[in-house]
Amino acid sequence: MKKGIHPEYYPNAKVICGCGNTFTVGSTKKVIRTDVCSACHPFFTGEQRIVDTGGQVERFMKRMERTAEQKDQAEARLMEKAKKKAAKRKPKTRQVASEKPSAKKGA
User: Fold this and answer.
1) HSE-up of 28 (CA within 13 Å, CB side)?
2) What is the C-alpha separation between 22 and 39, in angstroms, rounded?
């Protein structure tokens, strides 16, 4: 290896998680701070938890609610439109068999 081009390696670097869990690993940094680790990550714990980074989940949920509201409003408008159209339509009158013009009698 060339000298002077590689970072210093710390075989006992300390990792500190946001949940309070700490462990040691080999790294080029002495202390590593992380938000999630294998002790608190949903994949490893089996817990269904959403990690919210900068309110992204909250914004997504608001967007989904707005979309659902818009869909409901559009459905209501279509129903109103169909009702108005049905009200404007005149019912067709049928001729009763006795009112039909008589057919020409055989020649």
Assistant:
1) 4
2) 10
Q: Which are the contacts of 14, defined by CB distance < 8 A and separation ≥ 6?
A: 22, 23, 24, 30, 31, 32
Q: What is the pLDDT of residues 47-97, one digit of tens each?
A: 766 666 677 888 888 999 999 999 999 999 999 998 888 888 776 666 666
Helix ranges (DSSP H) in 12-104: 42-45, 56-88
% of residues, the chain, pLDDT over 70 = 77
Assigned architecture for domain 1-66: Irregular (4.10)
- Rounded distance between C-alpha atoms, residue 20 and residue 36, angstroms: 10
The domain locations on the chain are 1-66
pTM of this prediction exceeds 0.90: no
Q: How far is CA 56 from CA 32, 60, 62, 80, in A?
A: 25, 6, 10, 36
